[in-house]
Amino acid sequence: MNYEGKCRHPHGHNGVIEIVCSASDLDERGMVVDFGDVKNFVKSFVDENWDHRMLLRIDDPLVEEYKKRGEPFFLFEENPTAETFARYLFDLVYEKGFPVTEVRFQETPTSVAVYRRDP
Q: For residue 94, is it within any domain?
């Protein structure tokens, strides 16, 4: 919404998600974090909430139509862009307690959105 480019029309995406975790020291196992734990958490969230669903902004007029039809959707406060996906995942992983410092959402081989926060 509020965008005039070719992506203004409803369309689908595939993406590659990269979660970067950092620490100033390693744990007793010699790790920053167990990558499997992060992967399982993020994959479970994506599979249950974003996969095969229409990702919409909360005030999108399509929301009511999807509700009427019983179609699956997921709502964002902002436009569902690669940048929004990266920030949303960052917040989700951070709130879960993982030491995330950056999330990358690769929409195409040449388009990557990166979200990070200053410490």
A: yes
Could you read off the pLDDT of 56-111 as tens digits, one per residue? 999 999 999 999 999 999 999 999 999 999 999 999 999 999 999 999 999 999 99
pLDDT at 14: 84
Question: Among all residues, which ones are annotated catalytic?
Answer: 7, 52, 107
- pTM of the full predicted structure? 0.89
* CATH code (residue 107): 3.30.479.10
Burial string for 31-64 (b: 16+ CB within 10 Å, else e) reads ebbeeeebeebbeebeeeebeeebbbbeebeeee
Q: Decide if 11 is inside a domain.
A: yes
Range of the domain at 79: 6-116
Q: Is there a domain that residue 18 lies in?
A: yes
Distance between CA atoms of 38 and 23, rounded to whole angstroms? 15
